[in-house]
Structure formats: structure tokens, C-alpha cells
Amino acid sequence: MTEHRHSGAVRAPSVAPTSLRLGLSSGALYPDVPSEDAPAVAAARGFADVEFMLQTAGEYAPAFARRLARACRASSCRVHAVHVRQGLHPLADPYRRRAAEALALFDRAIALAATLEARVVVWHGPERAAVAAPGGWDRFLALAAERAAACYAAGVTLGIENVSWCALPGVREVAAFAARAPDLAPAGALGFVFDPFQAAEAGANPFMLLAAMGDRVVDVHLSDLRESDRAARHLPPGEGNLPWPALLRAVAAAYAGPLMLEGIVAGDPGRLDRARERLDPLLAVLAVDSVDPCAATPPPGVQEGIRLFNAREFYACHEAIEAEWHAERRPIRRLYQGILQIGVGFHHALGGNGRGALPLLADGIAKTAAFAPRCLGIETARLAADSQLCLDRLQALGPDGLAAFDPATIPTIHLVATPYAAPASHGLG
Q: What are the Xylose isomerase-like TIM barrel domain coordinates in residue numbering (predicted)?
């Protein structure tokens, strides 16, 4: 190990709930740090959970498994997952010897995971071309069932990751696989590995993809990308454009366990510290188990949506709040939807589309009024009442008179200094 990798004081552990915490994938350190040194790097930077991304066939050897186990004991690290190297496992290859050797090497990965007391073996599944070939989907299902059985026999779970260039790139494929999963393997034998970066790479909605995984999420990878620069990929979280506050809330509703930092640090482990500085406060907020969600503060996307609403940028308001609506699973998501519907309703009204404006305003007002008088520090009763006055005026003008509607009458969303707990009848607990 080189000295610069582990210099400095040991960082404090990641500040996060015990059920959701940051961990480190050895893949984040590739190619500068060999796999066996990853536990020391993790411990030095405050991570207690690691995932080993195997890089060579030699790293599958039993002797290397024992070496990794010693490194983990020395660093007091837990191994959550072992990630097989995709190129070494062409399990669907038509050349039988290649497929058989790939299968045998996969068995070594399972044995390695058992030696390390890991919970998950991560696999991408066959590449998209193999799955798209005649009979490819059925072969994939058969392979998944067989590999899940092998993992289950060793006391670990097979986790199949949504990867843009492999078997489960998007929502449709994940949903189809999830529908078959109960027939393929018993509970605990087969699950999903959620990677929002890979979802974005595939052009999939990460919130919908996570929802399609249901209650079978067994591992989560965190890396980022910049939409303006497609070469800027596999970045540490926060260095790109993914909506991390909303994503972490969505993950918290579906998964309990370590979140593996996988964005490549390119020889600068300080980027891990900066990722923690961005994510730990978000995880700390999730750790607060509020009896009444209305007593909390608005999440970042809702705060931005309110700012845009008050700036009369109604379509952008919709875009900002929609991510929070996708992420939230509690009934308070109806308030988010109500606000964005009111905004989109006014967007249509100002564009002369009364047919689109009226039902959206009516539905949004009803949803918002259900959280009166205040919620998340928002004066919900006031917003609903003021919006209703506008709706009444639009209805009176009729579809041919919308030009006479005065935009100055559109309400502003008002915030109180501190959030107000909604009455218990709202059923938000």
C-alpha cells in the first residue's frame, strides 16, 4: 500500500441511520488501489461496509478470498457484496466450453462471498444482444434461476443490477423480471441491485425503475453523471446532475442497508470525503422518524418548486416537484401533487388552454386543501382558497374569454417561519 492512500486521521463513521448508511465499493478506487487494500481505505475514511468488485480471474481464487478476509478483519469492515466482473462471465455464450468455464468461475465468486460472509453476489445478467436474440429472455430467466439456487445454497443472495447495456436496462425489463422472480427462486435467493446512474444512462426514470423492483432491492450503488458532458460518467455522487435528495428518499422506502459509493475517484480519495459531505446530511434527515410529516420542512425539490411557482415559472415548478413526488411513498405525496397540479393548471390558463387548466386546478386545489391549514410550513389553506378564486373566475370567463383573466390574481405560495403539524385526521403518520 502506498502511504498517500491512507494518510491522515481516521474519519468519523458516516452519520446516517443504522438501516441506511454509506459504504464503499472497491470499484470506486479502480485502478489505483488493489482490491485487498480497499478495506484499509474504507476504514480510514469512515466506511464500515465494503463491496468487492473483482477485477481479475486470480481474485476469484480461494487463497485471495482468505487474503480479503484478513484485510477486512484488520480494518473492522463488513463485506456486504461481491461484484463479479462482467467480462469473465459470458454465461449465455453459444460456445459451450466458454460458458462452462464462466459458470465455474462464477461458482468461485459465490464461494468467495460465503468466505467473506457477504450477503449479495452482484451480476449484470447477459448483455442486451444476448437477451434480444431468439430465446434469449428465456435463457436469461433460466440462468437467473440456476445462479440464484447456487447462491441460496451458499447462504447468499443473487442480486441482478440494472445496467444500461445488459439484461435489465429499463423499467419494462425490470418489471417483467420482477413478475417472474417468485417463480424463479424462493424469497431471499434473488433480488435487484439498484443503480440510479445506470438508469439515467439507459434513459429510464430511476424512480419508476426502483418502484418496479418492489421489495426485492438487496444492494444499491451510488455514482453520478453530468448530462452536459456524456464523458463525465461514473462520478462520485454530487459531482453530476442526479437528484440525490429525492433519490435517497425513494431508496429509503424500498431498502435498508449500505449504499455503496461506486463513482470512480481517479486517484483522489478526497472525493469520497466530499461525497460524504453531500450525502450524510441527507441521510441524517431521513434518520429522523417524524410522527407527523407535516411538521418537517419541505424537501429541496419542493422548496425549489415553490420558488419557481412564485416566479411564475409554472412548468419548471412541475419539473422540480415531480421528482419529489416520485420519491415520496407516504400520503404527503398528494400535497406535492396538488401544488404541481395548481402550477400546471395556471400554465395552461395563461396559454389559453381552458380545457386543460380547469380540471387540473380543481384537482390540485382539492389535494392541497386536504392538508389545511398548514403543512411543511406552507400556508395550504390560503393557497387553496386563493387558487379557488382564480378557478371561479376562469369558469365564469369560459373558454372564449380566457384572455380577460388577470395573471396578477394568481396567488403566491406563502411559508410560515416554522412548519405546522397537520391534524391527525390527515393520516400522515
A: 40-270
- pLDDT tens-digit map of 14-67: 433 347 899 999 999 999 999 999 999 999 999 999 999 999 999 999 999 999
3-state secondary structure of 50: strand
C-alpha cell at 330: 407516504
Residue with cell 417472474: 180
C-alpha cell of 91? 454465461
Q: Is 166 helix (H, G, I), strand (E, B) or coil?
A: strand
**372-400: pLDDT as tens digits:** 899 999 999 999 999 999 999 999 999 88
Contact 338, 306 (CB under 8 A): no
Q: What whole-number distance in Å separates Cα of residue 32 and Cα of residue 272?
A: 14
Same domain, 310 and 256: no
Peptide bond into 31 cis (omega under 30): yes
What are the CA-CA distances from residue 229 to residues 167, 204, 235, 237, 293 (Å)?
25, 18, 12, 15, 37
The CA distance from 283 to 48, in Å, is 16
Q: Which backbone phi and psi does 79 adopt, to 5 degrees?
A: -100, 115
Q: How far apart, in whole angstroms, are the C-alpha atoms of residue 35 and residue 379? A: 53
Peptide bond into 17 cis (omega under 30): no
Domains identified in the chain, total number: 2
What is the grid cell recorded at 134? 431468439
Distance CA 214, CA 201 (A): 21
pTM: 0.74
Instruction: For residue 123, list its beta bridge partners.
Output: 160
CA distance 103 to 108: 9
Domain ranges, residue 235:
3-287
Q: Please say which residue of 235, 262, 287 terminates a domain.
A: 287
Q: CA–CA separation, 251 vs 392, rounded Å?
A: 41
